Amino acid sequence: MPRPHKPASPFRYFNSSSEVIRLVVMMYVKYPLSLRNVEDLLFERGIDICHETVRKWWNRFGPMFAGDIRRQRGSRMRGFRHWRWHLDEMYVKLNGEMVYLWRAVDQEGENLESYITKTCDKDAVLTFMKKALKRHGSPEMITTDGLRSYRAAMNELGNADKQEIGRWANNRVESNHLSFR
């Protein structure tokens, strides 16, 4: 009888253990350290690796770790009673063309979803919100700016009672244009 196939470990060709690789990548991502600072901190703790190794591990395993964290966080937040979303649109230039970037951010400032369209109408908001709701579940409250397309889309989805509109209520997503690693 054939054995069930186990997925191959992404760490299988590396001489270091998966715990060390995870520690190195998380140190670089979590704290505002340079590659050489991470190398120095690890050397003080008895782990001798080059800063280029830190960079290569970050490039290779960073997206995998981020996906794991995002999945775990999403399942935890669905059970959170007071989960709030903040929605916003921005007019940005992409490949020389002006488009709308729609973004959903939760109450902690984590980007949940983004979507790009050429129009700023109810259909664009509806497509964006359906995508976000399908992927992340339904929040208790959705905070938006005064754009009428949000209200029309919320009415069509049956979530009109969950919408909050206020002049300064949507600052969470407005101030979330910071760069990230």
Write the layout of secondary structure elements.
Elements: H1 18-30, H2 35-44, H3 51-78, E1 84-94, E2 97-106, E3 111-117, H4 122-136, E4 141-144, H5 148-157, E5 163-165, H6 171-174
Q: What's this model, at a glance?
A:
By secondary structure, the protein is α/β, with parallel strands linked by helices.
- Secondary structure: number of strands: 5
Class of the largest domain in CATH? Alpha Beta
| Count of discrete structural domains | 2
| N- and C-termini, Cα separation | 47 Å
CATH superfamily of the largest domain: Ribonuclease H-like superfamily/Ribonuclease H
What strand line-up does the widest sheet have?
3-2-1-4-5
Shape: elongated
- Percentage of residues assigned to helices: 40-55%
Low-confidence stretches: none
What does this structure look like?
With 181 residues, the chain is an alpha/beta fold. The chain has two domains: 18-78, no CATH class; 84-174, Nucleotidyltransferase, domain 5 (2-Layer Sandwich), CATH 3.30.420.10. Helix content is 44%, strand content 19%. 17% of the residues are buried.
